[in-house]
Amino acid sequence: MTDKFDKDKVDKVPAGASPAPTEIPPEAIKAIPVRHYGRWVAGVVVVALLVLLGVAFSQGDVRWATVPEKLFDPSILEGLGNTVLISVASMALGLVLGVVFAVMRLSKNPVTSTVAWLYIWIFRGTPVYVQLLIWFNLALIFPIFNIGFYKDEMTDVMTPFLAALLGLGLNEGAYMAEIVRAGIQSVDEGQTEASHALGMSQAKTMRRVVLPQSMRVIIPPTGNEFINMLKTSSLVVAVQYPDLLRAAQDIASTSFAVMEMFFVASIWYLILTSVFSVGQFYLERHYARGSLRSLPPTPWQKVKANLARFSNREAVTR
Amino acid sequence: MTAMVKAEGVHKSYGAAHILRGIDLEVQNGEVFCLIGPSGSGKSTFLRCINHLEKINAGRLSVDGQLVGYRQKGDKLYELKDSEIAAQRRDIGMVFQRFNLFPHMTALANVMEAPIQVKGETKAVARERAERLLDRVGLRDKAGNYPSQLSGGQQQRVAIARALAMEPKLMLFDEPTSALDPELVGDVLDVMRDLAESGMTMVVVTHEMGFAREVGDSLVFMDGGVVVESGNPRDVLTNPQHDRTKAFLSKVL
Predict the structure, then answer these.
(1) How sure is the predictor about B128, in pLDDT bands with cuts at 50, 70 and 90?
(2) Is A87 at the interface with chain B, CB within 8 A?
(3) Biased composition, Basic and acidic residues: where in the chain (chain A) (predicted)?
(4) For A125-152, how does the pLDDT look when each residue is reduced to its tens digit (9 = 90+)?
């Protein structure tokens, strides 16, 4: 009995692709499948709850027509552009600071590693909202910005954009430093030794051997950080930066379509995060080179493969 | 013949663990020098001292007449800067037990990397040599493969080609076949035999007694951080003088 069962299993694997013509096809197992009553119950409960939610919203006092109407409002699009700008700029600053402080943290020099530790401790340990307010109100303690060759009123220097960039970027740098450090430490020590044995310097070993390999570990959490950043950037309302949320609020205050405008903003945030998630997939795929024997297929390749399989099957059955 | 590697009273300890307890030996120019011994005897540690992956605590160690990791002025020793140590390592190739190929680069890129980055060679020159070296180790058709797509034996042969690309005057082998499936050992040993015949000076830490007997010019048996017995491989392996050597060989042969 067990013999027959095993044989079936083994034979079945290639059967779909190209059945050997001379072999007698094994008899397929006919058995009554297990009934998963629990799954049915759960499915019904979830659908019922969704229906209730839909009913509630349909009865709410929402002027749905306003949502598509305002979705492409010029001021909303301008706010959207500003949100992308401040998010990308802050993330770029965070990345650079992250690599610098991660390398400092891992350095043998006790001064640099302690300073890096302090930076991470302060900027990760305080709320980003408070940090934004501190940058924005810096003029209260330093009315004049003076670095020798350049001198100006602090209120002119610390624009909403700069306050937002410093607030978000410096905060992000602290998180990125920990992510980069974990990535660097994930690279096998043998890699550094092999590189040194070839006569490569510390800096070249880091740049050519360690960092590229640490990317595989660094990219996924960095993608999460960036998606977080897109959303956290809405806090820059606190420093008067004209982002997407601010644009939505401005329209809301004049048109009284408050909730509708929050929906508009939410739709754009969802679109942004979705688009960048796709970008993350391709970036991760790029840095998986060499660590996987074969790269995972892109969604497009999957579609093509499925289509090809479908047409093959048709050819076979015909 | 002149000495390529010269060790005098070399000591090495990690904290309380005293790994090398006074190693004296000489590796002559152009010879294949085999180091054997039980695990923990310090043979790999000694090999790693030769290219300064480990710092020695006492004694003197020199390669081709130059102290490793230090400069002597009068009777004072000065530590070398990182860049000077890197310069010393250029001339010493090393092959590791675990291959340590760069996994994010193809076989060809692995071999091209150091000449371009360290010697500042052009891509064309480096590629030409890399292809020749991959051909020499029998892997010309695998040039475009990443290490994860190669067997252990193929990876180790790429690693040898990578070390040779720097045109070293000394090659160090740290148990190059220990991590390989038995049927793959032969290919790697063939490459090493070919290299030995070309006149390369080689220091080989190995458990392959057959290789040591056939290819080796000198052999040292180490145990407990000291050299127990040394001499011609055929003599030492067939007619060991020391009890510890006899005990070790009776287990591995």
Answers:
(1) very high
(2) no
(3) 1-12
(4) 999 999 999 999 998 998 888 888 888 8
DSSP 8-state symbol, B12:
E
- DSSP three-state, residue B25: strand
Task: Please provide the average confidence, as pLDDT, over all residues in chain B.
Answer: 94
In degrees, rounded to 5, the angle at the alpha carbon of residue B243 between the alpha carbons of residues B238 and B248 is 65
In terms of CA atoms, which chain A residue is nearest residue B95? A194
Chosen from A188, A198, A294 to mutate, greatest number of chain B CBs within 10 A: A198
A176 Cβ partners below 8 Å, 6+ apart?
Answer: A94, A95, A97, A98, A99, A102, A222, A225
What is the 8-class DSSP label of residue A18?
-
Contacts of A285 in chain B (CB under 8 A): none
**Sequence ranges of the domains in chain A:** 71-290
pLDDT value for A13: 43
H helix or E strand, kind and range, residue B221: strand B218-223
Q: Domain range spanning residue B162?
A: 5-250
At residue A138, what are phi and psi to the nearest 5 degrees?
A: -60, -25
pTM of structure: 0.77
Q: Chain A residue with minimal CA distance to B98?
A: A190
Q: Which CATH superfamily is domain A71-290 in?
A: MetI-like (1.10.3720.10)
CATH number (domain holding residue B96): 3.40.50.300
The count of structural domains within chain B is 1
Residues of A in contact with B166 (CB under 8 A): 198-199
For the range B10-18, what are the long-range contacts, defined as Cβ-Cβ under 8 Å and sequence gap of 24 or more?
B10/B46, B10/B49, B10/B56, B10/B58, B10/B59, B10/B60, B10/B61, B11/B56, B11/B57, B11/B58, B11/B59, B12/B42, B12/B45, B12/B46, B12/B49, B12/B54, B12/B55, B12/B56, B12/B57, B13/B57, B18/B225
What ipTM score was computed for the predicted complex, to two decimals? 0.94
